[in-house]
Specification:
This protein is mainly alpha-helical and 423 residues long. The protein is built from 16 helices and no strands.
């Protein structure tokens, strides 16, 4: 449910502004604030992620520990994200996001202190990664379902694309900055700057017009948590489109996404690169994804969303298969741009289709299932990929996972043709 004042109407809101087609969701003041805050904060998060991966590999020299830290980061999402969806449907999402961002800020500063004092150990990183994962279990469903409250359904796809552009512009900036800072100032500098960057999103949330973010109570407002959780699961099972989208995202998360966790090992052991080259590889993925996000923001509404999702669902694993064969830095950079493009087509469209398909009152719970599929299942992928890479080669593990995802994409084209026609 939404407030009586329609946030998508430029005539009903004196705060709305005219914006080009590509950036039309920015005509909503609350979303503009959120977008700029995210741009700064997510850059810091990517900086921390890149520096943390390098720190883990520097301390242990083990692909297994890369997978284990990834497992620790995501397993709380696996365990608690569905409850996060129930909470997101019960309480004001803005307040929930403010709380989760404050805890994430503390986590970043703790990691900075431990690293700068030279006392950091691998178990510290595992524990703090688990804390951040617990935060994300409640933050992600609230933040994703919060977008529609800022812009309405009319501009939802554009807002998701612009939000993805922030995520992926940051994916370029953060690792590049980390690649410069790690060899000169050390990993702790990246963790400290990430902590500071959370202030930007907190300021943006506090400056929002709270009156326009007060939806009517949802169907999850009454009743026990377990009952509302079961209702959400039953609803998702009853909708073939939602169930198929969640299944495809789950397969991608378990088998394809672990490539990013193994990237430090791929950079150092396969391509012979240092921290700067590793950062450049992550930035290449971000460049491809940013390009895809801007294309979706500009022209995505002209094509059926299901068709765009299908293209991304094929392009992402095909790009990874080609990348797994590369032994050239330049060729790897080009292929990672393709991987990033496919990734954003797949996941931005899945996000949009789930939010537009879900009934009002169930959106938070549906997006918590997306969080579970997209993030929560990642620990299983990271653990299996890290363990397998310990005994086999990293390129082989990337290749095998991509082939599994390609098979799922081809199955969906054959068995679920109606998915391509979703608008």
């Amino acid at each position: 449910m939404f407030p009586e004042r329609d946030p998508t109407s430029t005539e009903s809101s004196s705060r709305a502004i005219r914006a080009p087609q590509t950036f039309r969701a920015l005509r909503h003041r609350n979303f503009r604030l959120f977008w700029w805050g995210q741009l700064i904060s997510v850059s810091g998060s990517w900086m921390q992620l890149a520096a943390q991966g390098w720190l883990v590999y520097r301390l242990t020299g083990s692909a297994f520990y890369l997978g284990l830290v990834g497992f620790a980061r995501y397993v709380p999402v696996l365990l608690f994200s569905l409850f996060g969806g129930v909470i997101a449907d019960r309480f004001p999402k803005r307040n929930l996001v403010i709380l989760t961002q404050c805890i994430a800020l503390i986590q970043a500063f703790l990691l900075a202190i431990l690293t700068s004092t030279g006392t950091v150990q691998i178990w510290h990183i595992i524990v703090l990664s688990s804390l951040l994962g617990l935060v994300n279990a409640f933050d992600t469903p609230a933040r994703q379902s919060f977008i529609v409250e800022m812009v309405g359904k009319e501009d939802l796809m554009n807002a998701i694309a612009l939000n993805s552009s922030v995520f992926n512009a940051s994916r370029i900036v953060g690792p590049v900055v980390a690649g410069v800072l790690v060899p000169t100032l050390g990993e702790a500098s990246c963790f400290f700057l990430n902590g500071v960057s959370f202030l930007a999103v907190l300021v943006s949330l506090l400056r929002m017009d709270a009156d326009s973010l007060s939806p009517a109570p949802s169907e999850a407002a009454n009743g026990s948590v377990w009952r509302k959780l079961r209702e959400g699961l039953d609803y998702a099972r009853s909708d073939a489109a939602i169930l198929t989208l969640l299944a495809l995202v789950s397969i991608s998360s378990v088998f394809a996404l672990p490539y990013s966790t193994l990237m430090p090992a791929f950079a150092r052991d396969v391509l012979g690169l240092g921290a700067t080259g590793y950062g450049a590889m992550l930035a290449a993925v971000g460049l491809g994804a940013l390009s895809g996000a801007l294309v979706l923001a500009s022209w995505g509404s002209r094509f059926p969303k299901g068709r765009l999702f299908t293209i991304g669902n094929l392009l992402f694993p095909l790009g990874l298969i080609a990348f797994s064969f590369s032994r050239s830095f330049v060729l790897s950079e080009l292929l990672l741009i393709l991987v990033g493009l496919g990734f954003i087509l797949q996941n931005a469209m899945a996000n949009t289709l789930l939010q537009t398909t879900a009934k009002e009152g169930f959106r938070g719970r549906v997006m918590s299932m997306h969080t579970l599929a997209f993030i929560g299942l990642s620990p299983l992928g990271d653990l299996q990929a890290g363990t397998a890479a310990h005994f086999l080669s990293v390129p082989l593990i990337v290749k095998l996972g991509a082939f599994v995802c390609l098979g799922a994409a081809l199955w969906a084209i054959w068995k679920r043709p109606e998915l391509r026609r979703l608008t």
